[in-house]
Amino acid sequence: MKEHLVTLLNQAIQALINQGTLPAETQADIHIENTRDKAHGDLATNLAMTLAKAARSNPRQLADKICAALPASNQVIKTEIAGPGFINFFLNPNAIFSVVKEILEQGKSFGRAIPNSGPRVQVEFVSANPTGPLHVGHGRGAAYGATVADLLEAAGFEIEREYYVNDAGRQMNILAASVWLRYLEELGADLTFPSNGYQGHYVRDIAHRLVIDHQNRFEQSIDAVFTNLPADEPQGGDKDQYIDAVIERAQQLLGDDYNLVFNAGLDSILGDIREDLSEFGVDYQVWFSERSLTSSGDVDTALNILESKGHLYEQDGNIWFRSTAFGDDKDRVVKRANGQTTYFASDIAYHMNKFDRGFDQVINVWGADHHGYITRVKAAISALGYDPEKLIVKLVQFAILYRGEERVQMSTRSGSFVTLRELRDEVGKDACRFFYVTRKAEQHMDFDLELAKSESKDNPIYYIQYAHARVCSVLRKLEADGMHWHQDEGIAALELLNSEAEKDLITKLSRYPEILQNAAMNYEPHQLANYLRELAGDYHTWYNGHKMLIDESDLRNARLTLSIAVRQVIANGLELLGASAPEQM
Predict the structure, then answer these.
(1) How far is CA 38 from the centre of its chain?
(2) Which domains does the chain carry?
């Protein structure tokens, strides 16, 4: 119906252009909204107010002219001008039924725009260091990023999903050293594990695999490993200095074999992350290696560009990026005195690479702890000559998991955390994906395990899926009773649905495309999650007050037709949120 009104209004605008009331170059941005009060009509637009300046006219007077120029439509009974110039549309009561027919005809495509008709957008999300399994904190970023990408794709955008693999730098070297020390233990060595090493059981698993694949190839004596190392933290030393010394010793003793140990840890954990995310319903088109930025020369290229533009300077042996010139609170080191480039230098090169790939927009989904990083990255983008407004950064608060009243503490380094896989095994993928997007991404979130597992109307995903399963159950009973549903007859009989509950339910269905669009354009999956819960609630209320399988065939077909339309919209919405639509519960 909204599309129909947009067509009518565009025709009216063209008529006013032909009359000279509006300039020939007039471009109308038409928005149709549902009215809050049915006394003011069914739908409304502020078009006259947005065009008043171009027309050099009073908005109410222009609204009158727009209404007069509207082509006749049997779906619009009348229009009224309200307030400063709103145009209210009163629809033919039977016009609301057209959406049910659209839903049944379009099926899975209802609410979706033409594929790849919009801008080309990259969505990069999760990008957790491959130093351990994904935990429940990463799960929220995964659910949010995947759903935003799916919503934008449904809105017609051409989407590329990307995972930035942080496979370079100190954390990966700590992992490699941790794997090697556990490997030595597997061979019988008695050693004190570094306080700053990765201590999760997964490190032992990787080490065990290393023994199977390479036997004692990487074995070294304990004296060779630990002699003349600085003290670790429990012995009054510095844990960071100690682990760095262990890494350096490992590199010296292993030589070229160090890369084999390094890659064993990386490949094992990255493979686990890929599998974990896929089982979570999250798949990527691109897995981008941080190490490739150095091997390809992208880091050097980016720094050379910044230097050529006068944005780098040397101080105390370090090379600094003058990010304060672009709004940052302080300048940033991009290359240290020892010649090593920083993480930030890699990030600069990575974003240069993104924009060079020709995306119209780049969306980064980061943890909330990266808030301070936005300004410096946008500063670098500006300095390189790109439009920083093309970078959208969405911050996601980590979810906090509770078991009863007890908060679960998580630390990847200590190995004391709940993995995403463990959470999924406990409450199911559907509950995980849905619960993670029920609140705005930037809002704090407590993940209630007991609620996620409950079979009650208080559990939103259960409540929504039950509405879908309920329709399927009715159709099974219909067939078992020897009755049949006929779509054409059902559509023809929709006029029999004249209760307020039925009209409200149909109106709610008509809002799905708008909700989907708003959720996509505002990067707010919770809008769709909330809508589905409301739709399910409206359906349960109507179902409980109206018997479906009645003897009167026309009314039965009409009610079943409406039920099937509700089922389709619920299935469409759940798919976008990464959840299933079960036929039985």
Answers:
(1) 35
(2) 2-91 (3.30.1360.70), 125-140+164-282+397-453 (3.40.50.620), 296-396 (3.40.50.620), 456-576 (1.10.730.10)
Count of alpha carbons within 13 angstroms of residue 261, beta-carbon side: 32
Chain mean position to CA 74: 41
Asked if pLDDT for residue 234 goes beyond 90, the answer is: no
Mean pLDDT of all residues belonging to the chain: 93
Packed helices 429-436 and 420-427: angle between N→C axes, nearest 10 degrees: 110
DSSP state of 39: G
Q: In this structure, which amino acid lies at residue 339?
A: G
At 40 the pLDDT is 82
Residue range 59-82, pLDDT digits in tens:
999 999 999 999 998 889 899 999
Is pTM beyond 0.70? Reply is: yes
Q: Which long-range contacts (CB under 8 A, 24 or more apart) does 540-546 make?
A: 540/457, 540/463, 540/466, 540/467, 540/470, 541/501, 542/501, 542/502, 542/505, 543/470, 545/501, 546/499, 546/501
Q: Which of 161, 410, 415 is nearest to 274 (CA)?
A: 161
pLDDT above 90 as % of the chain: 81
Of 288, 303, 317, 292, residue with least CA distance to 380: 303
Mean pLDDT over residues 244-263, rounded? 97
Query: What's the confidence (pLDDT) of residue 413?
Result: 46
